[in-house]
Amino acid sequence: MAQLRVRGRRHDGDGQDREERRDRRDRRDGGGRRDCRDRRDRGGRRDRRGGGERPERWEGGSRGRRRLRALLALLITAAVVVPLTTAAARPRIPAPAPAALAPLTAVTLEQAYAANRADAALASRMAAAHGDRHRASAVRALAAPSRRLLSFDGRGSGRAVEVLGDLVHADRVAVLVPGSDTSLDTYGRFHAGAAALRQRLVGQPGAGARTAVVAWLGYSTPGTVSTTAITPTRAEEAAPGLRDFLRELRAVTGAGARVTLLCHSYGTVVCARAASRVDVSDLVLLGSPGTGVQAAADLHTRARVWAARGSDDWVADVPHVRADLFGTTVGFGADPMSPSFGARVFAAGSGGHSDYFRPGSVALANIARIVLGETSEVTGA
């Protein structure tokens, strides 16, 4: 009972106690605010006597750090949250393991084409039995008798390397490396770009007939909106495979063929990782978000380094930052289009991010000139 009476008295006086506590807090806070103002005023006077620019520099640095943190937070939020809220993981699609093939040479080339077409046909039937009509249709197209697949893997998002043209007799070879969101399900648009380039090369007088184009979907590309799209992890995984492929390619074409590496979007990060150890005459960066290095010289390649970006390409708005965050590198640094990077910048017209190989475009015309070695004819360079 005594305990209850004590509680009762406290309850009755709660209103008065609260008022007294407020008064004490206000007096204390008011003094604190006055002290803070006094300290700032004294600091300001000291700064004026000493020149007064130190705080401004500090505030500018603070603003820069805040902006960088905000940017990284935005990138990570977009990359992590959006995929989780927009789509579920795609069910695994059954497919055969890649065919066991003899080492690639001019003699074994047709054998490789036939074996990979057979694998694509089997993968199409398995996808259809699984109920995935879209994958079945996409892979069935690759099994057509006219297709020339150097390699094929229908598992997961899928991989394929396809030749357009006569690889054995070509003295000019263009290898296309795609960016994000390229898979067997979207391979049609990647192939269309390679076919447009091949058509443009064939139409050129002189060396055009002795050219080949290789569409190299030799890695698991990141999703455009994903954590992997803003880190170099997939590129680091892909680079050894690209280097190995380019070495194998020499066994078919011979050492005299000139190879141009055409890299699009995230594919430019892949090419940058492989650049120092590949034998190519030209390295072309199209719609690049950055390569992970600050200058073309840092690629340590003997190839001529080119860069282009269409005026309607959204990648122009990607901030060119690079930072270590929680043990992971985020962003790709310097803009390859900037003069300080040191690439040979050429005109790409008014196209968007997916328009570099659009038939009739300025970009495609200049790309064809680079592949053919007509570098003096490249516009905007």
Which spans have pLDDT < 50 for at least 5 consecutive residues?
Answer: 1-19, 27-60, 76-90
Tally of DSSP helical segments: 9
Provide mean pLDDT, rounded. Answer: 81
Distance between the termini: 94 Å
* Total beta strands: 10
Which structural category do the helix and sheet elements fall into?
A: alpha/beta
Largest sheet: 8 strands, mixed
Shape: globular
- What is the CA-atom radius of gyration, in angstroms? 30 Å
The largest beta-sheet arranges its strands as 1-2-4-3-5-6-7-10
List the helices and strands and how they pair.
Elements: H1 2-12, H2 14-49, H3 54-86, H4 109-130, H5 133-142, E1 149-153, E2 159-165, E3 172-177, H6 187-202, E4 211-217, H7 233-253, E5 258-264, H8 267-274, E6 282-286, E7 304-308, E8 323-325, E9 328-330, E10 344-345, H9 362-371
Helix pairs in contact: 4-5, 6-9, 7-8
Explain this structure to me?
- The strands form 2 sheets. The protein has an 8-stranded mixed β-sheet, sandwiched between helices.
- Helix content is 44%, strand content 13%.
- The longest helix has 36 residues.
- It contains 9 helices and 10 strands.
- The protein is globular and about 55 Å long.
- Helix 7 packs across helix 8.
- Strand 5, helix 8 and strand 6 form a beta-alpha-beta unit.
- With 381 residues, it is α/β, with parallel strands linked by helices.
